Amino acid sequence: MADYRKFLSKVETSVLPYFGGTRVDTSSRRLRLPSALDAPGWYTFEIKGREAFPKDPADAPDLSDLPLARGHVVGRWLVGDNAGAVEMELFSEEEPPVLAPCRARVWYGGEVLFEGLDFEGEAELSAREALEDGRSLEGIKGVGAPLRAAFAYAVLARTSRELTIPFSPKEVRKDLLTIAGTGPDGAASSLRRLEHERRMWRALHPEEALLRGEAPPPVRHHGPQPTLANAEERADAALEAAGARLLAVRRLGDRQLEVRYRFMDERFVTVCDALTLQIHDAGVCLGHGEERGDRLLTLESLPSVIKEAIDTDVLVITRGFA
Amino acid sequence: MAILNITYNGLSADYPLDMNYDLSDADVRRIALEVVRSGGVGGLQIANLDERAFAAHVIDRFQGQDGAPRIYLRPKVPFG
């Protein structure tokens, strides 16, 4: 009879990218780390069962078998089809020229890895000149939809620095076409709208006292009994189940937990109860006053709400990732 | 096996569904109402839960990372 303990104790070695949090992805499965690593990068991991143990930093392997993504560079973003802007991971230290055509590879967990630049055409050069001159794309021919969106994001990034109003791509997606046609004025208008909504939100929601002991934490049908000690593990599981990826957690006072995570190519910071995972501050605008929705939700159901906000172009992020 | 995740009044809990994933929204609301009333979902037992408690809830369907379907029943919240 076969001794299955041999299979269970089998150790593999693999070079994998680490993007943050306590998990890494291989081509076939997601593996758990004993703890978060100090920095993102490529590492050699020893794999035992569903756990991966980091050994040493490593060079990136050949990625040419992974799906290819194309677009234009704006800072660390790859702007591609449907005006999507995705932050590239493990990005080169040398920043490519803005609006440069770019190739990237998509890792098994959905992360986008910079691969290289493509040759530029007349459209990229003209668009970059317009950006540098503070003009719009009006009158420039041959500008495809991804380049048009990238131009708008680049104008927004520049205007954002001038006005010191931060933004995330999915907050401004509905304004991109207008900004491409109007330049910095349109970008300023879009950013001021965001700032106005955030000011309203801050004015209406000063720091609130924590609601305590109103209900016992729910017992899940599987998994650990909720305790403060296993809050990170449960936050990770809640986000993982909803398709989000935990990046980091930080214990705050009054039983609160600050949770940083990625979802739908965007980063979010949410504060929740460390025991029940009830949301205290979603980090996105969810109504005001008595109608405010944060506390109706938990970390388990919040990603579904964020997805709705993104899909309907009403996302406003109130808690920055910096 | 699909998992039904119910969020009500700031608490969430999972309930395993030993049945077909292709449940209608009405089925999902009816099941949630029954299991919360009966205490089938630990920590979320409300015996006198109103008949229309989940009438305005949103239903989302995801494929979990483990491949198991997940159904989220959560409150509708305002934006902005």
Adjacency order of strands in the biggest sheet of chain B: 2-1-4-3
Class by SSE composition of chain A: alpha+beta
Shape by Cα distribution of chain B: globular
Global mean pLDDT of chain A: 88
Multimerization state: heterodimer
Summing up helix and strand content along with how strands pair, one would put the structural category of chain B as alpha+beta
What does this structure look like?
By secondary structure, chain A is of the alpha+beta class. Chain A has helices spanning 5-8, 122-133, 145-163, 169-172, 176-182, 184-204, 231-241, 302-311; strands spanning 11-18, 23-25, 30-32, 41-48, 51-57, 68-74, 77-79, 85-89, 101-106, 112-117, 245-251, 256-263, 266-273, 279-281. The longest helix of chain A is centred in the middle third of the chain and has 21 residues, at 184-204. The termini of chain A are far apart. Chain B is an alpha+beta fold and 80 residues long. Helices cover 18% and strands 32% of the residues of chain B. In chain B, a hairpin with a 2-residue loop joins strand 1 and strand 2. At the A-B interface, helix 7 and helix 8 of A face strand 1, strand 2, strand 3 and strand 4 of B.
